[in-house]
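seq as requested:
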Amino acid sequence: MEMLTKKCTKCGKTKKITEYQKKKQRKDGHNSICKKCCSQYFKKYYEANKDRIKAKEKEYYARNKEVIKTHSKEWQENNPEKARLQKKKYYEVHKNNIKQKMVYRDKKISRITKSCRKDT
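struct tokens:
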């Protein structure tokens, strides 16, 4: 018979089993800490170790750049609708920065074009 509730070892509250992540190593097949407490713990851990985590991520990306790019491209080809929505969401969040970069690029191109015309 499966347990329907479980007590979190972090906050001490009794919660539904659905509020715990699955973990095969445990007798009951679920983590001993609820999802909410896990989330809080990892947020604190990330903030305390942000530089180290970012450095490891950067190192991993440098070692596996081609594999990551290939995987990303395959995912985009297999999930065109999700990819389109992600790009749209990214654009909405970063709209101002994108427009500023476009204006800067256009100004730079026009300066280069003008200097080339002066030389000829």
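The CA atoms of residues 18 and 29 lie 11 Å apart.
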